[in-house]
Write a structure and sequence with these properties.
By secondary structure, this protein is of the alpha+beta class. Helix content is about 25%, strand content about 20%. The protein has a domain at about 35-70. The protein has one helix at about 30-50, and strands spanning about 5-10, 25, 65-70. It has a three-stranded antiparallel beta sheet with strand order 2-1-3.
Length: about 80
């Protein structure tokens, strides 16, 4: 049996809502994904500080998270009959 494959990605806290469907980035490993989340949050924090408006779009973009998906190989169903 082959080993399962795990895919990693980072997504913004608003992923799945209007205008945020593209806010996802695939990563090769869990470590890289966690580092990318930290970097993205720092970037959004800096952008929010630089914004001149009271309510910054970038404030709502803080809180990126890591997601994983494990894919296993197809198996024959031996109970089928």
């Amino acid at each position: 049996m082959k080993k399962p494959i795990t895919h990693w990605r980072i997504v913004c806290p608003n992923f799945g809502t209007t205008g945020h469907s593209t806010h996802t980035h695939p990563k090769k490993t869990a470590d890289i994904a966690h580092d990318a989340v930290d970097a993205m949050d720092r970037k959004m924090e800096q952008n929010a500080k630089m914004s001149k408006s009271r309510h910054s779009y970038y404030q709502s973009e803080r809180g990126w998270r890591v997601q994983s998906q494990t894919i296993t190989p197809w198996e024959d169903d031996t109970d089928a009959g």
